[in-house]
Amino acid sequence: MSKNRVVYLIDGTAYIHRGYHAVRSLSNSQGLPTNAAFSFTRMLQKFMKERQPEYAVVLFDAKGPTFRHEIYQEYKANRSAMPEDMAVQIPYIKKIVDAFRVPMLEMPGYEADDLIGTLARQAVDGGFDVVIVSGDKDFAQLVSDRVTIWDPMKEVSVDPAAVREKFGIEPEQVIDAMALSGDSSDNIPGIPGIGPKTAFSLIREFGSLDKIYDQVDTITKKKQKENLVNFKDQAYLSRQLVTIDTGAPVDYDAAKFQVAGPDNNALSDLFGELEFSALQKEFPKKSDLSGKTYAAVLTMDDLERLVDRLGSVSCFALDTETTGLDPMRAELVGMSFAMAADEAFYIPLGHDYEGVPQQLDLKAVLDRLQPVLDDAGIVKIGQNIKYDWTLLSRYDVSIKGPVFDTMVAAYLVNPARRGYSLDQIALDYLDHKTISYQEVTGTGKNAICFSQVSIENAVPYACEDADITFMAYELLAEKLKQDGLMELFETIEMPLVSVLMAMEMRGVTVDKDALQALSKDFEGQLANLEKEIYSLAGEEFNINSPQQLGVILLRSWGCRPRRKPRKRPATLRTRTC
Which pTM value belongs to this model? Predict the structure, then answer.
């Protein structure tokens, strides 16, 4: 392909159908089918990432009959109506395309194929190269030095050489071959007894449909010749039906088909409604801390003012920042508190890096906070509060009075959700993208412990956690009341948190000597089993190797391997602390 600008013409209708059949039984917690929308989104996302198009348009079939139905009333007559669970997803798919800011087009009376064919011709005339994004073989008739096909699902590109290699004919001859073979899926009749293989063979031999009929008397196969003669009109009708119309009443305007960057806010809202959690995180809304008051507590005077405020309210949210995810091993780095929406305070206690400001004494801070944490009249709110509670217990800090866990509350409100992390709760209930843990600590080899994060960067992250937890509490508590779940939450779920914490902290007593003796006994049994296996096999081999074991089973017993089952997708793990 030349160095000209490229326009991508995406066969939207085809990918809706492919996506619908590729992934089944996928829906959100409200019962809305989402399989086609999810697959289509992944295809579009892959396309946008790999090709980074400057010009593109997604084409859809319009509802109602097309000009082909006027030519042949039985066109696509054998197709059943669109499944309802597919139809309800199409509006969402179009919203997703719009949110990706890729232009869309459909036209009554014409199929997406015809719009693609017309725009391809006009784009080439306008000096563009064209890439048709589709897996439909019918587009082979449009392929040229300036027009190629790309199927992102199969990672296959089709140019004129590929058409010649696959079919043995030129792209412009594909129409005549399709006219002979017909298409059962579209109820295009073709010639009885002539399938695709024979059709392409005839076109290779004669060159075209017209030349076949010019020389039909030379065909030696009696039945084939007879069918060609008797169904000549049907062949030419089929050619009309399979020919992609490149003269649809649509004008190519490059300016209208320019692609802008994705609208993350719109995509995040859509993916939230469809409950595509991973996609929602890939297209997050921008964190907005404007209008919020977050501050570090670095002096005893600041601490006294904070404690006074904590003691004067009916509830507050708390969160801990630590050196790890295991509360039985992690060390406390800092604590954050929120007593009102959009306001929070962070007490750094264990930050350790060159140039770190003076921090308050850990024991002095915990001693001063203990009275408000013990106040039975104040509700303590936390996200997965068992983690913070366990950690503080190791520092001899107790939490008394009512507690409210936003993670547990979110689960009760919607048990069908796939995740209840604070990030997800913020998106679901507050329409807010939080600062991620990786944004402050880095990822991979560059990741650092939270204790090495500068206090300046820790303040907005830690304060936001407490702030969002507090605001989520206000919403979730109301939802629990509305749904009649507050009694279950207060009498079963929350008391269970302290019970589980006590069990985890106490642990399980084991008899190490008995376990070691049992281990030695198992080793002896395994050794005997290995000897027996080697005896049966007639040789020694690596029993732990599936490949070597397969060879032994096949050679000794003639066992044939069963078809490997498709793996289930791994469950996504979310950070909850």
Answer: 0.64
